[in-house]
Amino acid sequence: MEKRKIILDCDPGHDDAIAMLLAWGSPVIDLVAVTTVAGNQTIEKVTRNALAVARVGNMQGLTIAKGSRRPIIRPETENAPSIHGDSGMDGPRSPKPMHTLDPRSGVQVIIDTIMQNPPKTITLVPTGALTNIALAARVEPRIVERVKEVVLMGGGAHVGNWSACAEFNIKIDPEAAYCVFHEKWPVTMIGLDVTHKALATPAVMADIAALGTKPAKFVCDLIDFFGKMYRKEQGFDAPPVHDACAVAYVIDPTLFTTRRCPIEVELTGTATLGMTVCDFRKLDYPDCSTQVALDIDHGRFWALITDALKRIGQVEF
Fold this sequence. Notes:
Layout: E1 4-10, H1 14-25, E2 29-36, H2 43-56, E3 63-66, H3 81-84, H4 106-116, E4 122-126, H5 131-139, H6 143-146, E5 149-153, H7 168-171, H8 174-181, E6 187-190, H9 192-195, H10 202-209, H11 214-234, H12 244-251, E7 256-260, E8 263-265, E9 276-278, E10 290-296, H13 298-312
Parallel strand pairs: 1-2, 1-4, 2-3, 4-5, 5-6, 6-10
Antiparallel strand pairs: 7-10, 8-9
Helix pairs in contact: 1-11, 1-12, 1-13, 4-5, 5-8
């Protein structure tokens, strides 16, 4: 089977780190580049974290590039230390990076990778603010028709987490999200309706710990810290591992129940800024280029992550 090529655009971040490891360890994914964007922490911190995760997974030959440090319009990026800590990835011991950053900007890496590969072979998987993706489409509009699809973690059809009705990744750069949802490429929104069901339960943790490898312990330490913060801040008994869901969709879309519908991003509401408004008034919109995920197969999802970690194996760091 030909592997599915993806660019993972992320802001590591505990769940972004797990998404990176899932993408690298999956036998059906070719992780061709990782680009970073400010979000869970500053651009310097999340980029350093991406490099550290690459070391954990022994991701040799992987292109990693630093992307946008602020939203496309708003003056500064909101960060999430209440969930991810001061480093953006508190909890595990973070190894010294071994990779060298690509000298290009993350936006340029996205453009170059898409333009240098055959049309409809690169899938964009953004798991942070959509700043880099929106800028890439504006700088080089030809990428839109060449991208296979955009599978993003963000938004929610019925729930928010950074406000009563807005999800973090969308709210911190709503204008970028608006741009991405309104381009002509296919977009799948993997939002909170699904990710709040992708919980790292004690049984899941036991399965990962049983692998006995350093990468597996790294993931357990990530989830342990993440779980404590989610329990304190939002009352979850087990933490939702949001970002890995977007990678899992590319691996096996049958894990998810989706519904095709128009999706708008609220840009001006005092209480609703960043809300993703899904129009469910019709049963189907056959000409619509956006769809939202509404359910996930929890067991099969975590089996993908455990299998990826098993394939990565023992790594010394």
